[in-house]
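Lab meeting minutes (informal)
Scribe: AK
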Amino acid sequence: MEKYRVEIISNQSVEEDIIELLEETIPDLEYTLLPTVHGKGRRAKKLGTSTWPEQNFLFFCYVEKPVAQKIKKAVEEVQLKFPREGISFFCVQEAEL
């Protein structure tokens, strides 16, 4: 079955909400979490400095399509709860070599 790389980049303020929901929804999910990610989005910089104090986190995993769809649905649920937090979801199909 084809694999997909799923990425979530979001404000650290909703990290716990997202991870808890994913672990409830997909208990055996294996993932990598980079807890502190800096950058600039459409609305703001998140650099962890006194001028730009907020920070993001990056979550990623490699899963089959049905699991990627469950992750997307969970992210959409958190986006509805926190519409101003800039939660981004990306999904890319693994290339065949």
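Next up, CB showed the second protein from the same session:
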Amino acid sequence: MPRAETIEIEGSEPFRTRVGREKRARTRARILAAAFGLFDERGMDRVTVDDVRDAAGLARGSFYNYFSTYEDMLKDMAATITAQLNTEQSLFFDHLTDPAERICRNIQYTILRLSSDPSCSGVMVRVTPLIGPATPHMRQHAEASMRQAQVIAAIDVPSPAVAMDMGYGLVVMLIRRAMTDGLAVGDIEAAGLMLLRAFGVPEDRAQAIAAAPLPTMPKEPLRHAIIQAGL
């Protein structure tokens, strides 16, 4: 029988390109799912590239078609986790008009959402101290938010960049504690309050912002959203 020809609509993605892209996305999802499963079983420091490759069912060397090193995979995972958190934060908090409140809520939400998944937490604790925000775009966005808050006197800090690093440091330390000892009742509120005090927010306003309840966490586990990203 003659081979059927594929009809492509002008301006659309070529069929073979689309098939290749979708195949790569599925394989990437298999790699990330395998990595998360191994992290759960052994801990991140006891997993190798070959372990991930075997668990994902890939041929030898195929891992490197997607990530140049094990650390590169972790950085990609951290970037995807951060992007997902930013999407969720935008949904819940972009309507807030007070930049100080928005900053506080974003940080509290990040701590609570990450603490629900030890392996996602482990990735962020490993990567964030080394590179800060997972992409240059994320750093620029965070710094712009800090500068905006400073300009309208919502916060009083000598350096928006240092204030941003303080926020990232707080997230990392709280997540690290959640992984080892768990978070006590009131830790999320205390973290927000102490950060707002450091940012020069008046005490009454800081207490009111920090004590406000966070929205209900999404039902979808964080790692599922990460694995499915790009599919």
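CB comment: The chain has ten helices and no strands.
No objections, moving on.
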